[in-house]
Write a structure and sequence with these properties.
The protein is an alpha/beta fold. It is built from 4 helices and 5 strands; from the N terminus they run E-E-H-E-H-E-H-E-H. It has a 5-stranded mixed β-sheet. The longest helix is centred in the first third of the chain and has 18 residues.
């Protein structure tokens, strides 16, 4: 399961704080697979309790994102949506926002500031 210091649990949702370069290599602060495992474990836990998974992905400390990182975000988004849950991407910096525009993920992902994300996730 590895180090889960990047996962925080709030009252009714989970926050995953992604950090540094998110590229799927030794450069990663946290290996991409650990993010995916955290989401899968949380979805499984929610399904056992028969509650909707609610996740905020905090991208405020991400410095770089490549196709491997994008693939991980898309996979986490798909996993949560498939489980009939909610996922919001928060605190997206300009560089990452530009990546989302170029890839058109800004049309798919629900994006907000952290304060807005906390409100959206509770709705």
């Amino acid at each position: 399961m590895g180090n889960r210091s990047f996962v925080m649990y709030r009252d009714r949702y989970m926050v995953i704080e992604m950090r540094g370069a998110v590229v799927g290599s030794a450069q990663d602060t946290i290996p991409l697979q650990q993010y995916r495992e955290a989401v899968a474990d949380y979805i499984h836990e929610c399904q056992g309790k028969q509650i909707m998974p609610r996740i905020i992905i905090d991208l405020g400390k991400v410095t770089y994102l490549n196709s491997n990182g994008i693939g991980t975000l898309v996979a986490m988004h798909s996993d949560v949506r498939r489980a009939k849950g909610k996922i919001v991407f928060a605190d997206i910096g300009k560089v990452i926002a530009n990546v989302f525009v170029v890839t058109k993920l800004n049309q798919i992902f629900d994006m907000a500031s952290m304060a807005e994300a906390e409100q959206k996730i509770e709705q």
